[in-house]
Specification:
By secondary structure, this protein is α+β, with helices and mostly antiparallel strands. 33% of the residues lie in helices and 23% in strands.
């Protein structure tokens, strides 16, 4: 199963934390928000994901490749 995950927001309500870090890479409960999302999807049997990225998208791409490839 494939998931489409929109993570392109600016995170403007979380500034100044999101000036250099995408919202989904901010830690909540000891790990980035995107890690919580990916782990839940893996638990549900999702084996492919497409991320819709925007602001600071290269950081999101790097995190996912380094931790889930």
């Amino acid at each position: 199963m494939r998931a489409i995950i929109p993570v392109a927001g600016l995170g403007s309500r979380l500034k100044p934390h999101t000036y250099s870090t995408p919202k989904v890479l901010l830690n909540v409960g000891g790990k980035p928000i995107i890690a919580h999302i990916i782990e839940k999807l893996l638990d549900e049997g999702v084996d492919k994901a497409t991320f819709v990225i925007g602001h600071l998208g290269e950081k999101i791409e790097e995190y996912v490749q380094n931790n889930y490839s």
